[in-house]
Amino acid sequence: MKVVLAALFSGTLFGAGLAWSGMTNPARVLGFLDITGNWDPTLVLVMGGALAVSASLFPLVLRRPHPVLTKVFALPSNRDLDARLLGGAAVFGVGWGLAGLCPGPAIAGLITGSPAIVLFVTAMLPGQWLGWVIVRQDQAAVRQKDNSG
Question: CB 107: neighbour CB atoms within 10 A?
């Protein structure tokens, strides 16, 4: 239960930060991407602030023997740059540039009731499900290959 409450609190705090900084407004993000027109630097300031906090505190957290609410750190072990990773990043970037939204700000922005944000999240859910299906199929294929060899 503590883990669920911590996740709920963290997600709420993250969403509030996104809303307070204006990152749930697609026009703010699109303004950042408009480098030849009316450029809005707000996004770089928000990202820079987040990076400064996480870059300075992450090494301190990793010095602990384990996280506060679980027994082990869940850190990614795969550091490969493959076609799936690069393709996914490209699709994400194009979608972000076209809509001015990505999943976190979109979910936080649902509270506004904006039809554009509701449509974005509605379209995002099948994409996330499809991604989950593809990953599960890949994992099953790897397991089958490991068991047969």
Answer: 19
- pLDDT tens for 99-137 read 889 898 999 889 889 999 999 999 999 988 998 998 899
Burial of 97 (0-12, 13-18, 19+ CB in 10 A): exposed
Alpha-carbon Rg for the chain in angstroms: 19
Residues 43, 26: Cα–Cα separation, whole Å = 11
Separation between Cα atoms, residue 120 and residue 110, nearest integer Å: 10
Alpha-carbon span 38 to 108, nearest angstrom: 25
Helix (H, G, I), strand (E, B) or coil at 48: helix
Q: Tell me if the pTM is above 0.70.
A: yes
Rounded Cα distance, 111 and 29, in Å = 18
Largest CA distance in the chain: 58
